[in-house]
Amino acid sequence: MKAALISIDGLDHEDLPVFSRTESLGRLIASAQIARSMAITPAQTYPCHASVLSGCYPEHTGVIDNLSHPDLSWQWWRSAIRTPILTDWARNAGLSTAAVCFPMTAGADIDFLVPEIWTENAGDDTDPVFRASCSEKGYRYYLRHKDRLDWMRTPGMDLFAAAVFEDIIREEQPDLALLHLSYLDHQKHLHGPSAASVPHAVAFIDGLMNGVLDALGDDYMVFIIGDHGHRPQARSLSIPAEGMVVHPTGMSAEIYLDGMGEDEAVSYLRGVDGVGRVYGKDELSCLHLPASFDIFVVADDGCAFSATGKVTPSGHGYAGDDGPYPPFIAYGLPQAFRSTACSLVDEAPTVLKALGIDMPGTDGRPLI
Ligand SMILES: [Zn+2]
Q1: For residue 126, how far is the Cα from the chain centroid?
Q2: What CATH architecture does domain 2-231+319-354 belong to?
Q3: For residue 103, is the peptide bond before it cis, meaning its omega torsion is within 30 degrees of 0?
Q4: What is the distance of C-alpha 127 from the center of its chain?
Q5: Of the chain's two ends, which shows fewer C-beta atoms within 10 Å, N or C?
Q6: 114 bridge partner residues
Q7: What is the distance in A from the centroid of ligand 1 to the CA of 231?
Q8: How many angstroms separate the alpha carbon of residue 185 from the centre of ligand 1?
Q9: What architecture is the 234-311 domain classified under in CATH?
Q10: Cα of 5 to ligand 1 centre, how many Å?
């Protein structure tokens, strides 16, 4: 059997009753195994996907935000993950691999690669960035469907991703294929944290999945994941302090000290209205975070850090164990999950084990 790993960005375990009523995903969910998966901290898209890909926590991947610090560029490139990723192990075992719009795969050693990436400005020619980041075989599929792209916006990016993925599956039948869809997450940000608040996005994702599942047919085990859930947010936080640099990650923030001592900074941050928990450098490892910054803060419920002073109605970036938890859904897997509680870091080892491949050196463990 081959395996497909499909990430529906922003999918929460609590969304499953809504998706259970849909035509395509509903049918799949009815006969799938489902575990509840703790997101990593901070529950942001790129750190979560780095941990999904690698089976390792941020303290080992080194990925703590969508953006790199201090230049604030998007971390599209696989080289930003310091550990091996599941497609590396699959290729080492002689399997063929594909990834479409999957975060942090740009430039990865993947046979049919069309990564998530976009140009600096809407309307710029997309060919140069995709030529630089796709595999040679993937670039041909990009060219075939690039007219569906609408810069970084959805639903265009998802329409592009599904079309490319379906063609790669039908024409190349890779042994391990990864896909990422973003529309549900984008619509939750705008309209509310649950799938029930975005029925149009649920219908759209299910429509795409109808074609994707049809292409996969009976040859693939299908793993469907979310990277993080969403929580309501109404208040924007900023920390106006001399002596520290604040790097917001939604409902949390990384603090880089710049002249202020740690004790003084921790004491100051504990007094900031809207700041919930404050972790000093020695405590970062308890959250599986690297010591590449100095202090980690988690916002109070309903608050989020924002560089612009604005927040969308819903967001994430929370501490993983606070929840919500994304699901880990396995369809067509012959073995039974040993547990229905897991973490994002358990997902890659499980997918590879299902393909008969060990993934040593990970923080996670296979569920089978
Ligand atoms: Zn996400």
Answers
A1: 23
A2: 3-Layer(aba) Sandwich (3.40)
A3: no
A4: 25
A5: N
A6: 100
A7: 13
A8: 6
A9: 2-Layer Sandwich (3.30)
A10: 15
